[in-house]
Specification:
By secondary structure, the chain is mainly alpha-helical. The protein has seven helices and four strands. The chain starts with 10 loop residues before the first helix and ends with a helix.
């Protein structure tokens, strides 16, 4: 008797595999795109201001993190694949991102396919309570989308996603 040992996937592996398998799933992509349109509509009414200064994209110095879900990363990676942008290359085993690699002097290079947190967070001219309530509403809708598309719900730091790609 020869037995086959099955090694279970880690959450990160299962999530990455799901994303790779769904990069061309237009129904998933459109569902996230529609959710992002909803965010933009809510924000348009609030009229927040962004100078595109990039301070909030320097996560370590700004003192915050950007967390994203599996389906948001699907949308992000699908957006990257349509552009000449790529995921950051690791230069050594000690390589660690501390800021968004897509924020440059000319602004956000990934603006069209940026995740929920980038869409909702404004460092000026937008009530924190409004941002918090909108974020919770969208996260609830994201959870339902994950269930609908049988996507593993993984909510992790954006920089970790990028480093482990």
């Amino acid at each position: 008797n020869t037995s086959i040992k099955v090694i279970p996937l880690t959450v990160e592996q299962a999530t990455s595999q799901w994303i790779e398998n769904n990069l061309s799933n237009t129904e998933c992509i459109e569902a996230i795109e529609n959710l992002y349109i909803t965010i933009d509509q809510h924000l348009a009414a609030a009229r927040p201001k962004c100078d595109n200064c990039g301070r909030c994209c320097d996560f370590n110095n700004y003192g915050h993190r950007l967390y994203v879900t599996t389906m948001e990363m699907l949308y992000f990676w699908a957006g990257l694949s349509k552009t000449k942008l790529s995921t950051p290359k690791k230069s050594s085993s000690k390589y660690q991102l501390t800021r968004c690699p897509y924020q440059k002097k000319q602004g956000c290079l990934a603006h069209a396919f940026r995740p929920t947190g980038c869409r909702i967070f404004f460092c000026q001219n937008l009530d924190r309570q409004f941002q918090s309530e909108l974020t919770e509403n969208i996260l609830s809708r994201l959870r339902k989308l994950h269930q609908h598309f049988n996507a593993p719900y993984y909510y992790a730091d954006m920089l970790s996603w990028l480093q482990n790609k």
